[in-house]
Design goal:
about 260 residues, alpha/beta, Rossmann fold, eight-stranded mixed β-sheet, 10 helices, 8 strands
């Protein structure tokens, strides 16, 4: 595959930023009469950056089986949110980035060809893209996702005060998070009224992950209403070996066009 380290100015963020972009090689690009590529937006976690999926998993080897592009953007510790005290990262990830990628690379603009997946904070981001923008994404996948961020302020979670202050700056505080468009539970409840409009949803979490209870709760509340596919793995924790295994399964689940004659 071709690996692009793409640097650009973001109007939404007001800074120079970057994304890794994986594209099939020329032979695969020319298949299917040279039609535009389906695209997976692959989102990083809280303590990571845009390089980590390529550094820590075999995403390139997995993706080369398919005729697909993979875009891995940098979003810092933003929770893919238009921050109360900061930059507009949801606007960036949901609007500006796809338009930019589809301008500079041969990527399809069709809903059925646009996907998002991520781990931890990135799982939250991918799910938010699917729930807030269901007309733009054909499928989304959350791996060990932070799916119940509205419970962050619950005293029983014993969160670090510094992290709560960070959440205040991102979401605008407890009331704003619970009542706003960054609350995945509110979004899922709203979309469950018209489930036929929802994208396909894949959720995975290990039983030893600190987010396992939150994933179970989210699935119990909305899994049937939105036809989510839920995968657990006994003993798996919040680790790259689990995410490496799962991203291969996600690519299979997406039912992407196969790349022919790839060795």
């Amino acid at each position: 595959m071709y690996w692009n380290d793409f640097h650009f100015y973001s109007t939404a963020l007001g800074i120079q930023t970057a994304a890794y972009v994986l594209l099939p090689d020329q032979q695969v690009m020319s298949q299917n009469n040279g039609s535009l590529l389906p695209t997976l937006y692959l989102l990083h976690g809280l303590s990571d950056d845009y390089t980590m999926w390529l550094r820590q998993t075999r995403i390139e080897q997995y993706a080369r089986k398919y005729r697909v592009a993979v875009v891995m953007p940098a979003v810092n510790r933003s929770f893919y949110t238009d921050m109360a005290c900061g930059a507009k990262y949801f606007s960036f990830i949901s609007e500006e980035l796809p338009k930019l990628m589809e301008t500079y690379f041969p990527l399809s603009k069709k809903r059925e060809d646009r996907f998002a997946a991520g781990l931890s904070m990135g799982g939250y981001g991918a799910m938010k893209l699917g729930l807030r923008c269901p007309r733009r994404y054909g499928a989304v996948a959350s791996l060990s996702g932070a799916l119940e961020m509205e419970k962050t302020y619950d005293p029983s979670t014993r969160q670090d005060p510094a992290f709560l202050r960070e959440c205040d700056a991102i979401f605008g505080g407890e009331k704003a998070l619970k009542a706003g468009k960054d609350n995945l539970s509110r979004l899922a409840l709203q979309l469950s009224k018209t489930p036929d409009k929802a994208p396909r949803i894949y959720v995975a979490c290990g039983t030893a992950d600190f987010l396992y209870a939150a994933n179970n709760s989210f699935i119990a509340n909305f899994g049937k209403a939105l036809s989510m596919e839920y995968h657990t793995e006994e003993g798996a924790a919040h680790t790259w070996d689990f995410w490496d295994r799962q991203i291969e399964k996600v690519l299979e689940w997406l039912q992407l066009p196969a790349a022919e004659n790839v060795w």
